[in-house]
Amino acid sequence: MSARKRFLFIRNPASGSAKGLKSADLARLFPASDSVFTKGPGDATTLARKGAEEGFIPVAVGGDGTFREVAFGVKGNGPMGFIPLGTINLVAMALKIPKGARALEILARGEESGIYPGICEANGEESYFFIGVSAGPDADSVHGASLSLKKRIGRSVYALSFMKRLLKPVKSEIACLADGETAILSEAVALRMAWYGGPYRLGEKVSLFERGIELVGTGGGRARVLRLFASAASGGIIPPPPRFSKMCEKIILKSREGLLQIDGDPLFASAATMTCGKTPLKVISGS
């Protein structure tokens, strides 16, 4: 039955494991399907929207960024699929989709889960997010990470960039509005899932399978910011600093530097507004 489904495999050629998954193998397993490669940012959204309109089930083949773009193209015209080939693949972890070719078994079974997308409005444009939008040293490190080094050492490039950023002064200058409550923080993350930066639990209550956004952050200098993420990475063995944490319907972040990040991708914006979608997105998954 799955062989007769019309999948549109939307492939990011820049993903780390893209070369290990051949279009010929996809065509053999799913003969009624087609494959296309993205050419730049936003291309996956356009391809997914067009594919869904033509009766295909769009499948993101790449990392969390590719998933986010395809999901925004699909919106309410799901379901969609996901073959994770990225560096971290947190969305796939939440959906229990294994990396690479093993995800084809999940796709063949066709079981669906519903997840609620986060909606980010910045620079007059709207996009989805499924992990988090942040401002502070964390976002600065995404902007400062070397893409060429990322291909060689994977997600460790972000840790190196983060430590390099902490050599500079860190100040509480991020203005946050969380359902009307104001907070001035030095690091602020609007989370759509509890996991962040890897299998590290930063959030307390937020879940992709339920509506809501959790704002997590801290004030003060570099020591507090370092402890915030070190505590998450150590599973709480390292005590966290005094932290702000609140489940919200709406979060506004304002950055003086204009450097944010969304699901691990750089975002140039002085302010961003985050809400949660009201309708779940259907994704073929192992959950």
Our count of domains comes out at: 2
Provide the succession of SSEs.
EHEHEHEHHEEEEHHHEEEEHEEEEEE
Biggest pleated-sheet summary: 6 strands, antiparallel
Shape: globular
Number of helices: 9
From the alpha-carbon coordinates, what is the Rg to the nearest angstrom? 19 Å
Q: What distance lies between the first and last C-alpha atoms, to the nearest angstrom?
A: 20 Å
What is the helix fraction of residues, given as a range?
A: 25-40%
User: How many strands?
Assistant: 18
The second-level CATH architecture of the largest domain is Sandwich
Strand order of the largest sheet: 7-6-17-14-9-10
Low-confidence segments, given as residue ranges, are none
The CATH topology label of the largest domain is Tumour Suppressor Smad4
Report the β-strand fraction as a percent range: 25-35%
Structural class: alpha+beta
CATH class descriptor of the largest domain: Mainly Beta
Report the mean per-residue pLDDT as an integer. 91
